[in-house]
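hey so i finally got around to running both of the ones u sent me last week. sorry it took forever, my laptop kept dying halfway thru and i had to restart like 3 times lol. anyway pasting them below in the order u listed, first the sequence line then the structure token line for each. didnt double check formatting much so if smth looks off just lmk and ill redo it

first one:
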Amino acid sequence: MKFFSAFSFIFLMFFFFHCTHSTDVKEWKKIKKGEILVEKSAFHSALNYFFLIDPTNFSDDSKAYLYRSISHTYSKIGLIDSANFYLEKAAKIAPRGSYFYYVTKAEMALSNHQTSSALETLAQVDKKFQNKEEVACLLSQIHSGNYGEGFFDLSKAEKYALRAFRLNQNNSNKEQLGTVYFEAEKYKLATKIFKEMYYQESNNHFYKFYYGQSLFFEGKEKKGFQLMKSAAENNDSCKLMFDEIFSN
């Protein structure tokens, strides 16, 4: 059975950019504040904050960074057209040959269902700019089958998910790693991750569901079922996942 996240979309996660322009440090910090809101799932508040930022005096890199942050936030709430609009703005303004240019180019390819092209670009950027969280995230999602079953490779998905997690242990990377463990039937490892996430945010119905699901397939059916059922009773998306598992 394929594990899937209610948060999944073309740009599953927002990214952290290491600013190389000392004159942009103040502006970069402003954008980071918005990303903290995204991390807390306060997507509409994050968008309102981003649109209050005046990018007039930003470098092209920082402008592209702002537009990508807006794009990723729109993707979190499922507004595909708006997400693509701001991703295209970022792609047009990112300095050619820069790290940002390559990553945005790969994301644009994925948004246009050109997964092979995205993989070629990511291979280039992974070689030129090593150990980047964004690259590891995208490669893990591609090899998890999110962009076509022809690219599905769980060993590679786990490799890159672990790399992203080691670079940044945020919730997005934890969820991706837990997802890969679940798909690889490493249920104890998935349970450990989702248990931690659920205990940190006990009001998050998705984390409750994923924790319960991992427990259920680990062999602890009773507790797992109760957690999934509770999440399903309080969230429509969780109910859909619950029905998919138990409809047969």
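and the second one:
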Amino acid sequence: MKKQQGKPTIEEHQNQYNWDAFDIRYYRDLDFDDIQDSILAYTKKRTISLEEATSTPYFSKAYIHTDGKLLRLDQIGTRGVPSQVYIEYSSNLPVKALEYYLGINPHGKRITLGGELSREWDYKYDENGRLIEMTEHTYPDLAFTYRYTNHLYLHRFYEYDQDGLLRTYQLVEGLSISGKPWQKNKVIIYDREKAKILSNNTVSKVALISKNQLGKNTNLFRFGGLPPREVFIPVCPKCNENPAYIGLVDLSKPLQKKRISLNHIPIFFCLKCMENQTISMRQAQHQILDGNIKVFPETDFSFVNSSDEETNETAFVKLGGFPNWIQNEEYPKCNECSNPMIFVCQIESNEHLYNGQDALMFGDLGKLYVFACCNSVTTIMQCY
């Protein structure tokens, strides 16, 4: 077994304490990845009995100090990679964790020679004891390469305000197998304000993106065609002409109406003036007009759930989630209840779609963002 320079071996950790003297708890599945940036969260996980643990093919075994600190976490069984994680503390705060793989994976192939250091975590705190940075380092496999990278570093940075954790950022870097360094862009993986939007101000917490082929959820969004006869045809506030009719969103399952009184969201936008507009259906319900509107060829789309941010951003239509703003955030407030309006969808420009006069272009390859609340619909355009 090869020892990483300056790192303790698994035997040194195993001989550090009389582990059987600690409080031992069993879990159905408590992987260290689940609690890596909040180690005390293990106390919120449901424990199981020894009998229940040993009757399953895979379980977790935790060793707890008398002061409540988690000192060691073992993964035991055949479903995952057997491993042991050892956690070091300073001033009652975890400062390092080291994980040792024990040699096999679920397919019976060798991951390491057994008991070699595979990953480690380092923690940094501010003067108030709040976690401000965590770095996870994945070592190359000493038996054979099981990743596409040689050394992988995952950095997480934590930003706080007076109300607690505000944002978490992630930066990933490493070495290729040939030893060439690489790095991905730093991205936000948690934003408290965006989390609030997903909880309160969007028609779907999980974004639904359009697919070309018809399939599941084909009734949620109809692009083009004529608007329903009962829909009020608005006027552009700048040129006083009827704007183009873009489509109709059906607020049925799996979408949520939230504070929206409307069952369907009609989408209009003046492709000539590009003016943002709020339409009150309450004021317009007795002003049904025929209107000389411009319409696109009618198309139904199917929608599937997506958590891939890059795919969400480039989809032709995205329902729910939160807006992929091109410029600064522009969350409108409702004229009726003064609350932030509910994000309904965003629509991507498509220069190949015409209504007989205009291409579906929101400025310079921009997006149209649609919000609704009470009886109002707001459209906002942003472009590059």
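quick thing i noticed on the 2nd:
The first strand starts at residue 23 and ends at 27.
anyway thats it, ttyl
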